[in-house]
Amino acid sequence: MGWFFSPVLGVLCWVFLLGCANGIGANWGTQTSHPLPPSQVVQMLRDNGFQKVKLFDAEEATLNALKKTGIQVMVGIPNDMLFTLASNFKAAEKWVSKNVSGFVSDGVDIRYVAVGNEPFLQTYNGSFLQTTFPALQNIQAALIKAGLSKQVKVTVPLNADVYQSPSGKPSDGDFRDDIRQPMLSIVKFLSDNGAPFTVNIYPFISLYSDANFPVDYAFFDGSSSGVVDGNAAYGNMFDANHDTLIWALQKNGFGNVPVIVGEIGWPTDGDMNANLQYAQKFNQGFMNHISSGRGTPMRPGSIDAYLFSLIDEDEKSIQPGNFERHWGIFSYDGLPKYQLNLKTTNTGALVRVRNVKYLDKQWCVLKPSVSLNNPKVADSISYACGNADCTSLGYKTSCGDMDSRGNISYAFNSYYQKSDQEDVACGFDGLATITDMDPSSASCRFKIMIDVDSGTTSIRPLHQFREQSLGFLFVFFCIALLF
Ligand SMILES: *[C@@H]1O[C@H](CO)[C@@H](O)[C@H](O)[C@H]1NC(C)=O
Ligand SMILES: *[C@@H]1O[C@H](CO)[C@@H](O)[C@H](O)[C@H]1NC(C)=O
Ligand SMILES: *[C@@H]1O[C@H](CO)[C@@H](O)[C@H](O)[C@H]1NC(C)=O
């Protein structure tokens, strides 16, 4: 049995256990016109070795699909519920009873409740400043009353601009002056209750909003524009931003509060810096970073993080920018967009959502005979784009290279598909026609929507059982080896 103890196997086991230590999570948002069936998405999560998901609400169908899967869940409370939950303890009790207790007893592994989502974003003008903390307190009290406060922790996912550093050095980090008091109340409460601080960190947004932001500092390959801070050298923005938070926590007496990276990722379309190449580079760099177990200078060790996001959402608000609908590592139909090794599977390749049912292979396009000068064209485009999704049209986007006829067709098709290929949705005052010739090009995909009415579910208990027992045997074997 000498081969059992070969160094190769030892290293394999070590890597395996390390990879298991924290795992990687995914944000699963559902602001989409044609959602994939939750059971198929959950199967895909398992196929890809995701160990946890973060949700933005507590939808029943989603939570039901997560029953007895072993996947850890963070459920979310939308900002528009904060006022009610802050002012009414009974409402908080009901929320916990309906959206946590019931699912926990049915075998959903709920670990966290996210109270609000980035409630202190500056664009909200302080609307949630008064309600976030009391809502957090009420939910925590309701969890205690339900006997769940040991296994389910509260948190508030916050945007990274709740703290800042005037000098750019992490060690000068502190909470923003205008929200200092509410931040300190929240942090103290989290600390008192053994709950984590959750922060969303977006180097992409820094690059998007500042033309002078050094591009390579957004990624993980080291940057000449890094920051030196005492003994620590920062070659990427993620580490520096993360440690600015750690310093802010430490300075205020909360240096031991655990930190979760609630959202991190890179969009693939809708902006000149949102493309497959950058998204691949960023997310792979991040996965390599966390699987190294290195951590950051201020918090060496494992990083607890959720990628943003799992699947594209075509109904997200584009107020922050056209890239908003393109954060997925999978496209709307569950296809991987690029090569990404999550270090959780043997192949190191992303596994697509299986058994996806599409609508018919047909597209709606501008009639070749219609002149571009036709006065009805402009109104038709704005109607189509206003009601569907034209965020892939624009400077340096995936469909940005088409001629005018091409992008009119793109707009028409987007509306037609979103309307489930109804004939009337390809009218446009006689400007449009249906074709079965795919107008897509190498970079620009004319989508066919998925068929939401006849989506199939695939449950393969036997296969799952085999995978699980193999994994279990392997861990057992590794532990045996360690002794
Ligand atoms: C439970 O969560 C859902 C989805 O977020 C929400 O619509 C519903 O109001 C919640 N239930 C209660 C009793 O608060
Ligand atoms: C915030 O204030 C700005 C300017 O005063 C306004 O345009 C915007 O609509 C406000 N947003 C919200 C969410 O209240
Ligand atoms: C459509 O194509 C033309 C190029 O002929 C371009 O100038 C225009 O901006 C495009 N429209 C949209 C909505 O991107």
From TrEMBL:
Its main location: membrane. SMART domains: X8. GO terms for cellular component: plasma membrane; side of membrane. It holds the Pfam family Glyco_hydro_17. It catalyses: Hydrolysis of (1->3)-beta-D-glucosidic linkages in (1->3)-beta-D-glucans. GO terms for biological process: carbohydrate metabolic process; defense response. The keyword Zinc does not apply. Its EC number is 3.2.1.39. It is a lipid-anchor; GPI-anchor. GO terms for molecular function: glucan endo-1,3-beta-D-glucosidase activity. It comes from the Eukaryota. Residues 362-446 form the X8 domain. It is an enzyme of class 3 (hydrolase). Keywords: Cell membrane, Disulfide bond, Glycoprotein, Glycosidase, GPI-anchor, Hydrolase, Lipoprotein, Membrane, Plant defense, Signal. Residues 1-23 form the signal peptide. It is found in: Cell membrane. Belongs to the glycosyl hydrolase 17 family. This is glucan endo-1,3-beta-D-glucosidase. It comes from Dioscorea cayennensis subsp. rotundata (White Guinea yam).
